[in-house]
Amino acid sequence: xxxxxxxxxxHQPSHLSLRVCRASIECASIDVxxxxxxxxYQTPDSRYPPWPMLAVISYPPIPVWDIGPFQxxxxxxxxxxxFVAGAWLATREMRKRDFDTIKYQSALTWGLVGALxxxxxxxxxxxxxxxxxxxxxxNPLQGNFSxxxxxxxxxxxGGWRMRxxxxxxxxxxxxxxxxxxxxxxxxxxxxxxxxxxxxxxxxAPWGYGIRxxxxxxxxxxxxECVEATARADGFCxxxxxxxxxxxxxxxxxxxxxxxxxxxxxxxxxxLFFAWVTWYGIQRFLLDSLRYGSGDATIxxxxxxxxxxxxxxxxxxxxxxxxxxxxxxxxxxxxxxxxAAAERVDPDDEDEDDDEFLEEDVSLDQ
Length: 365
Prior knowledge:
This protein is α+β, with helices and mostly antiparallel strands and 365 residues long. It has 11 helices and 11 strands. It is 52% helix and 12% strand. Strand 5 (65-67) and strand 6 form a beta hairpin.
């Protein structure tokens, strides 16, 4: 902590600059100056607070690097690490319940491919509605990428592979919910590093302050400034750090999932759709802070808001239906699921589906 004496005299209050540093990493700073004159903030721009800002979160982003026609970003690195972390956690839970983890790795591989495809093309309809050409909307390397699309594509592809290899779908999805939540937490670290997914301007003390010269994520280039155009408080602007909110929400969610899993009598599929409901509602609420920040939109909503609302609403309905139509999770029911999976012949998909459906019916009765 450093203390700098105010130049106006020895009896003036001091300006504290709190800096949190770790070895070989640039310092993150929180500026605190509760006695700065409010005159500096008197401006017709409603983004500037008419009172002293008590604290602002600010740290230097690590930029995106251009390597030939490609861009390298820690966003992608942590998305990959998040997938691996989530896969590890879900596999561990699968092993505890004696489900086939080898088959699960196959489903995860298909899920990864589906997630990559879904993340890119989930927002293509919004691009077309906004007037983009078909070639631009389908370009695999340009345009918006959506975590909601990644989830949808990964779950659909992984679920199809589960049925193909004979994994019981609902129990597997239940245990995958832990991995989906953990993957979100880890993946959002990349967003924090490059400063992506900023929301609307804010005066909240937990807002993220962009300083002159900061190189934030390309989608937010319009928010950058130089010293000559900075505000009177030294910032280019202060904005909601929506990625941080999403990461914190996912951290709470994984705790809630384990609480339900260990202490509440659940029916098959309810844990997974509890994740769907929570995260859908979470994204609907948080993305209201991001409208107009470069995300794909449809009407007065971002594309992720619309998908989050539909996921949350659909998840609630399915939770109710599962409670009336699925058996209670138990070791005995697990063994029946495992026995059904062991009888599956992966080379005869039609027969597999009929046999698995019959087993599902027997479990429901």
